[in-house]
Amino acid sequence: MSKLKKNLGYQTIYQILNTCIPLITSPYLARVLGAEKQGVFSYTQSIVNYFTLFAMLGVVNYGTRTIADCGKDRGKRSRTFWNIYILQLCCTVISISVYAFYLTQICSQNTYIAFLQIFYLLGSLVDINWLFFGVEKFKITVSRNMVIRICSVILILMLVRKPSDLWIYTVIMSGSTFLSNAILWFFASKEIDLKAIKEISWFEIVSHIKPNLVLFVPLMAMSVYHIMDKTMLGLLSTYKQVGYYYNADKIINIPIGILTGVGTVMLPRMTSLNKEGKLEEARKLFLLSIELIIVVAVAMACGISAISKEFTPFFFGKGYDECIRLIIDLSPVLVIKGLSEIARMQYLIPNHKEKIFIESVFCGAGVNFVVNWFLISRLGALGAVIGTLVAELVSCVWQYIKMNKYISCLTTIFKSMIYVVFGVIMFTIVRVVALCFNGGIVALFFEVLTGIITYAVICLIYWKVTKNKIVGLVIKKK
To answer: What is the pLDDT of residue 2?
Structure first.
């Protein structure tokens, strides 16, 4: 358990850094590049993301699970790694070739920026994060990412000064991803035998295709309908609307990183517990994780909504008022995504129940496409927000209804809805405090402080009264 706590600690530190970095770069870029240029970046990035998706297949989750299954057998881990990586290498080369065709034969606008996005694909060529996730060595991935992220921020602030510097921003963002992944190869020899590449078996490589595809199909559908919003906005609306959505989505994705970080850490642990037959321990950990995620996600969603009216003009500057409503309307997705992430990473994938995952994601993707098609042309970015919310909700509900046949978790979710009431109370009190000020950083400071204290006090009182297990984690244990 101490190793798990350390990994959660590393991941938490990294996600806090990820939270702080956009707080530095987003307002700067909103003023320097403007909504339209950010829309161009977001649109071209959404296109290359499709190719990156096919390059990686389901390797991140499948590779993590398969490496974790190898346990401490270094020889087996080495052979498994190389067989999976060769498959990843082949898929990436194919994706790069197809993307090159897209650039030369299909792409007609912003071709230069689209070309510079290719570093994301090159990053997939050398991405072996899944190896370190599988052996639960998160310190290496976190420390490396922290250094690269900090350096990229410094470069952005130094070099990106005007709208025409969009190409520099693109190189920094895509290039840092490539560099971050490439550096991991210097540490790979500590976990695997590099010479084991001579033992690769094409038969074993082929054997990894089917289970990889099983995880890739839902990942593809899920990623597609996440990327789909920006792509359809670019096609059916304007780059400015893409820019508004891009910035609102960026604010919401800051705390989402913390929620997904927990899932990344828990996947190999849950896989190990299931393999060792510790099913009751895995069940208790899963149910506790559901409540913890709801506690954190509700606080984030209600907190962001409560301060968005003052935060948006202060953070992005003039001309981004449309983002206020987008942020408020999009904030419930934090709770929905948090629950979906827990289901996927802590139960469905470790227990090899990918079919439920696949069904839920395809339902969500279909709903998202239909809602986007009808609403984006009429409502612009707001239509994309509605499409995201409906799609995420449909996907999440499907997962838990199906999953409840194997593990009783709906009761935990319903009981945890009390935190939504606490969130609404916090929201109301924060808005009352906001009336005492006329905007500005002082108002934001007191709003945030009020929200944190209010929610924390209510939760602590509730945990004490109900003798909730969480109170032991928060107060008694260090």
So the answer is: 56
